[in-house]
Amino acid sequence: MAVKPYYTYTDCTHALCNAHHLRELTRAWEQDGQQWAKKMEDLLLKINQAVDEQGGTLPGKQARKYRQTYRSLLKRAENECPAPVRPPDCRKLGRLKRSKARNLLERLIDYEDDVLRFMEYPQVPFTNNLAERDVRMTKVQQKISGCFRSMDGALTFCRIRGYISTCRKQGLSASDALALVFSEKLPDFAQMG
Question: How far is Cα of residue 157 from the mean position of the Cα atoms in its chain?
Fold first, then answer.
């Protein structure tokens, strides 16, 4: 998971996608036998359920309690999944290779606020999978073609994908949305006044 490049954008507040964390935690639990990963997966799901039950945000006291549980669990995880230690006879410089589970653990520690932001801000979702699905077709198009032939072509592609995505979110199928375009009509939700 590429986190650091996003942090070059400094004029915004970041939140990390917990769907990614859940997948990585499941992997760490099932493939590496990391007990802490299963407990963290359960905790994140429990917090998300509590947020939903509270209507989108947790009261301060409850949020602090969950944050403390989160930190406590990660502190215990440090014992189960310790950082690698450089052997005394090793002459290599730089960062030692870490396991996937260790990298995940360090990310959950270092980016705690961005992992848990969903529990205190109703506009921050638990997962950003919907946003990723909206971007995925653009990435698939780039992967197949290698690139867009022109900036106008890229903008047209994005405009069409954005229109279809918006229509789907409003309950209109892609085929119905395109049929409206070709009959030079707007969907009901886009009608003015």
Answer: 24
Residue 106 near residue 60, CB atoms below 8 Å: no
Gap between the Cα atoms of 2 and 23, Å rounded: 15
**3-class SS string, the chain:** CCCHHHHHCCCCCCCCCHHHHHHHHHHHHHHHCCHHHHHHHHHHHHHHHHHHHCCCCCCHHHHHHHHHHHHHHHHHHHHHCCCCCCCCCCCCCCCCCCCHHHHHHHHHHHCHHHHHHHHCCCCCCCCCHHHHHHHHHHHHHHHHHCCCCCHHHHHHHHHHHHHHHHHHHCCCCHHHHHHHHHCCCCCHHHCCC
Identify the segments of the chain with pLDDT beneath 50: none
Rounded Cα gap, residues 44 and 70, in angstroms:
9
The pTM of the full predicted model, rounded to 2 decimals, is 0.69
* C-beta separation of 109 from 77 below 8 A: no
Which residues, including other chains, have CB under 8 Å from residue 72's CB and lie 6 or more apart? none
